[in-house]
Amino acid sequence: MQTMEFEINERLKQLTVMLCEIDSIYQSLLATKNISDSEFVVMIAILSLGVGCLQKDIAETSYMSKKTINSSIKRLEKEGFIKLKAGKYPNMHIYLTQKGKEHIKENILPIIEVEERVLNSMSNEEFERLIVGSSKYIGLFKDQVANFIIRER
């Protein structure tokens, strides 16, 4: 096998592997309930933001594209899990149907409980370090990406 003329920093390799592993674990978990990433994100957002929330709020808090969120909302509405009600134009408020509430209870909450058990297994100090380190990384990464975008224009 031929070697490349550049190498990836070991810390970046570790971070990439960790993020990919977390994604893989989530994919396995969601697959047990036959739930897509975007469906899970929308349902979690409805639980977090409250019924009657807006699609734009879900997109803003989930960091998924409006198009992806919109597709998932349309699919959830077609499946009878949610209903949309007009608010101040052009906003549509999202409400759970009875079928949607049952879906959350049977399929979403058990997934949340898995992660809650993991978090409850961590000490407050471990959790705080995780949050502080992740927040610092995200802030620094955002700054570097913003600078990169400016340079590339």
What is the radius of gyration?
A: 19 Å
Q: Can you say what the CATH homologous superfamily is?
A: Winged helix-like DNA-binding domain superfamily/Winged helix DNA-binding domain
The residue fraction in helices comes out at: over 70%
CATH fold-type name: Arc Repressor Mutant, subunit A
Structural class assignment: mainly alpha
Main beta sheet strand tally, sense and closure: 3 strands, antiparallel
Tell me, what is the CATH class? Answer: Mainly Alpha
How do the strands of the widest beta sheet line up side by side? Answer: 1-3-2
Average pLDDT, rounded to a whole number, is 93
Query: How far is it from the N-terminal to the C-terminal residue, by CA?
Result: 37 Å
Which consecutive residue ranges, at least 5 long each, have pLDDT under 50?
A: none
Spell out the helices and strands N to C: HHEHHEEHH
Shape descriptor:
globular
Strand residue content: 5-15%
What is the overall number of helices?
Answer: 6
Count the E strands: 3
Q: Any idea what the CATH architecture is?
A: Orthogonal Bundle
Features:
71% helix; Arc Repressor Mutant, subunit A; single chain; 8% strand; 3 strands; 153 residues; three-stranded antiparallel sheet; mainly alpha
Set out the fold topology.
Layout: H1 10-31, H2 37-49, E1 53-54, H3 55-62, H4 66-78, E2 82-86, E3 92-96, H5 98-120, H6 124-152
Antiparallel strand pairs: 1-3, 2-3
Helix pairs in contact: 2-3, 2-4, 3-4
Model description:
This protein has 153 residues and is mainly alpha-helical. It has a single domain (10-112, 126-152), classed as Arc Repressor Mutant, subunit A. The chain is built from six helices and three strands. It has helices at residues 10-31, 37-49, 55-62, 66-78, 98-120, 124-152; strands at 53-54, 82-86, 92-96. The protein has a three-stranded antiparallel sheet with strand order 1-3-2. Helix 2 crosses helix 3 (55-62). The longest helix has 29 residues, at 124-152. The radius of gyration is 19 Å and the shape is globular. The two termini are 37 Å apart.
